[in-house]
Amino acid sequence: MTHARGPLFIAAVASALLVTACGAETTGTPTAATQTTPESTTGTTSPTSSSKQDTPVAAGGDVTAPGTKLKVGARAVLPMASGDKTGTIALTLTAIEAGAKEDLAKFGDKAKNVTPFYLRVKVENLSGTDLSYTSVSLRGLGTDGKGTGVIISGDTPKCDSTSAPRTFKSAGETYETCVLTAAPDGSAVTGGEYNRGDYGKSPVVWES
Questions:
Q1: Model confidence over 74-117: pLDDT tens digits?
Q2: 48: alpha, beta or left, given left = phi > 0 and alpha = psi -120 to 50?
């Protein structure tokens, strides 16, 4: 497994807080994890049945439409382009978990009003093309379906952000990763969105 590590970055938009540090972690009153049973909603053009997960899908083929709304646990089929590598992946937001404020302890008072949340993600290679070392990212959404006002990236002991392994070259290959997100204390992350490439203006959204 290849680890895409970097400095932990927090920007609390509402209070203009900007913090960077290496190997930092998060804090916050433990909150119940938010998880839902896998389910899909209308608007996706791709099958969500596990029996079809290993079927190769040509790059640029039958993918989930921009603007599609899914339930946490549902699978979106998305085009992947990274450098000279292209293909098609299936992306599943499998769970949203609230972290503890202690996870960001190294930030001290600068992160005292921030609670971390972990987006657990499964990635599948559908096209069978070489997508080794590529990476994906989601943005956490609050209960109003909008961004939380906190931008955060990096790793914590309970959320290890990884890129695709070198073996991620065949249809059916999978890996799991974690996307670190956060919300002001008293708020929650209850959804996530994929907003890269053609999905910039109309993201694919997962809701609890």
A1: 999 999 999 999 999 999 999 999 999 999 877 677 778 999 99
A2: alpha
- Report long-range pairs for 13-22 (Cβ below 8 Å, ≥24 apart): 13/149, 13/150, 13/151, 14/149, 14/184, 15/113, 17/110, 19/107, 19/110, 19/111, 21/106, 21/107
Identity of the residue numbered 193: E
CB of 188 within 8 A of CB of 146? no
* Six-digit token string for 153: 């990236």
What's the maximum distance between 2 C-alpha atoms anywhere in the chain? 50
204-207 and 69-71 strand pairing: parallel
Quick check: pTM over 0.70?
Answer: yes
Q: In whole angstroms, what is the distance from residue 2 CA to residue 162 CA? A: 6
* CA dihedral sign, ordered 101, 72, 44, 85: positive
Question: Do 28 and 101 form a contact (C-beta atoms < 8 A)?
Answer: yes
* pLDDT digit string, tens, across residues 146-167: 999 998 888 888 999 999 999 9
Q: Name the token pair of 8.
A: 């932990």
Is residue 175 within 8 A of residue 162, CB to CB? The reply is yes
